[in-house]
Amino acid sequence: MSKIVINSCQPLSGEVNISGSKNAALPVLAATILVDGKSILENIPSLSDIDYMCEILSVLDCLAVRRSDGTIEIDSTSSKPHSVPYELTGKLRASFLITGPLLARYGRARVALPGGCSIGTRPVDLHLKGLAALGGEYFISDGYVDIKSTKLKGTRVCLDFPSVGATQNIMMAATLAEGETTIENCASEPEITDLADFLISCGAHISGAGTDTITVSGVKRLKPTSYSIISDRIEAGTFMLAALATHGSIRIKNINLAHLSAVTAKLAEIGVIAEPIQNGVVVNGNCQKKATDIKTMPFPGFPTDMQSQIAAALCCAEGTSVITETIFENRFMYVPELIRMNADIKVEGRTAVITGTDSLIGAEVSATDLRAGAALVIAGLCARGKTVINNAEYIKRGYYNLDSKLSSLGAVICYEE
Length: 417
Ligand code: EPZ
Known about the structure:
417 residues, 4-stranded mixed sheet, binds ligand EPZ
């Protein structure tokens, strides 16, 4: 098990370049199954989750070649709808995103249900309901979904909840369905728009991505293309909070600030101004932090993937902050770890009440998931003394070169295998 060791540091300062988005890259990698030919994807971050998805694509006889410059070539010419085993899908919940593309291109898919994780049960009922509405007939046995269809037919789908994954799976399947599909009450995250833009560049007919209703008119086939993935808004937000927590000033480059408006609005409530600059933002955290309330919501609301990080940053704000997690049922696993670092937090159901303390104190703690790990890094950066974060491989799943990026800003941090 790898660790991250952090010693208290001066306020972070300098410039950091944000990498490509994990949550944009994973659905686009799955979408390459739809393409009859070689897709070239740029700005793909070097993360273990990306490796897992490439492993899954190779089980489907898609040839994935990663180049050193962050480009991945995926040749799906001879892909096959082979069964994808649990030992692969269980490592990466996003693996279920191959189901819609396989069903659309080959009329069948057999995918092991990915199962839950520490933040929640992560069901796929909305994915399956949408694919069934398009004409997919499925049954679940031995933990696998077997789904097939002679020909997918466009239809109206209204999601019970604006699920990101379900929106992506249904949109991908609809690109090759006969006729028009509308997906109502769909997710509008930037990663949805990025997937739609990739599919459109392959010849798909999609409109409305980024709103609550997406319309897809099916086409016969999708052609190969080159496409560059958007940058990672959650990595960018994590660095904003690192500046806030350490009273530092960081220039965060290669981001689209429009993807972070809920986060910058909360920074302003806390007292931290995010100054837009060309292709980025400067965040200066050298001010007294005021407590504020956070309620996670689907985009454009405050992102659930930033909830644990802002909780860590609010541990030393003046006053009491209330955090309400509305998206996942179990996303406060980081709280006991922060309490070990002198944080004053009480959890009641889906609400955490944080009372600001003077300072956090370094301790040995454990990451329970990717974003909980990021929260512990933020806490370690502003704590007095040494912090050791166990299970650091969780962090590597979503943050490329986090240690060297933070070290370049003045942090005293390193991974230890
Ligand atoms: C995506 O997960 C992201 N992952 C998550 O980021 C992110 O937290 C989540 O969207 C919400 O923004 C990727 O993009 C790879 P959902 P996804 O379907 O698609 C329930 C990270 O840290 N639900 O929008 O799985 C579900 O249980 C990860 O990078 C159903 O009930 O999220 C959850 O409570 C963590 N039935 C809620 O909807 C379904 O069929 C949101 O899930 C699907 C979802």
